[in-house]
Amino acid sequence: MSDPYVKLKINNEVGYIEFFHPAHNSLPGDLLAKLAQTITDAGKNNAIKVIVLKSGKDRTFCAGASFKELININDEATGKVFFSGFANVINAMRKCPKFIIGRIQGKTVGGGVGLAASTDYCMATKFAAIKLSELNVGIGPFVVGPAIERKIGLTGMSQIAIDANTFYSAEWAKQKGLFTQVYDTTEALDEAVKEFAENLCSYNVEAMKEMKAIFWQGTEDWGSLLAERAAISGRLVLSEFTKEKLKGFK
Fold first, then answer.
1. What is the pLDDT of residues 221-232, one digit of tens each?
2. Nearest to 245 by CA among 132, 145, 163, 133
3. Alpha helices in the chain (DSSP H)
4. Any bridge partners for residue 62, and if so which?
């Protein structure tokens, strides 16, 4: 079984940031911290004009937060730190001055949907169904909610947040605006992502930077907002309901 990693590879001025964890690409705190820092560093790297965010292997893009860590939370402060992991990555993506293209090859759950929603342009395969399962364990998609709502609207976000047992198809996600294109195979997706990213590199970097700033207007308070949301999840994860639910994952 492969070890977890976050790595950056630069090819033709495109920075490919790839994360991987053997547990369906779920992300523990150390990997989330490394991912946030890698995105920040890529944003400052003059050798990179456009960023692609992807995950390793073929099946799951991201299964959300690490349940192994979630089960071991015993106080609110630790809970807030845990849930701040995805908040820090989302804020790194938001503040990054370069366009981030999402490459979503498979199913994505919880925090993974938040990552997809935080990209500036997101492309997927037909296997990239999405689900917000947080309500199942007595919490909610509080941290990733603003990013998802920004992309698919409050109606779409609340639908998948309340219907926490259902995977919604990649085509549904495309119709709602989360995905821009949906491809039949990972190979077709990779070819399209490469062509699109490299074409973007031929554009004016300053123009793209200014466009991104405009696209993200109105999110300037997310540094504090997502921290507040992380505190809500950190409190709820200590509830008797959630503790009982999590026993089933031990």
1. 999 999 999 999
2. 133
3. 29-44, 67-71, 76-95, 111-118, 145-162, 170-176, 186-200, 205-215, 222-236, 240-247
4. 108
- pTM of the complete model: 0.96
CA distance 96 to 15: 13
**Tokens matching residue 180:** 């821009």
Distance (Å, whole) CA 226 – CA 169: 27
Contact between 29 and 69 under an 8 Å Cβ cutoff? The reply is yes
**Cα(173)–Cα(42) distance, integer angstroms:** 28
Identity of the amino acid at 142? F
> What confidence score (pLDDT) does residue 67 get?
85
Residue 242 is given by DSSP the state H
Instruction: Give the bridge partners for 121, in sequence order.
Output: 101
Reported residue count of the chain is 250
Residues 6+ apart with CB under 8 A from 107: 59, 60, 61, 63, 127, 128, 129, 130, 131, 167
Report pLDDT digits (tens) over 162-208.
Answer: 999 999 999 999 999 999 999 999 999 999 999 999 999 999 999 99
Q: Give the residue carrying structure tokens 């198809």.
A: 169
- Asked whether the beta carbons of 19 and 25 are under 8 A apart, the reply is yes
Three-class SS state of 102? strand
Question: For residues 41 and 78, what is the distance between their CA atoms, to the nearest angstrom?
Answer: 26
- The per-residue pLDDT for range 25-72, each reduced to its tens digit, is 999 999 999 999 999 999 999 999 999 999 999 889 999 998 888 888
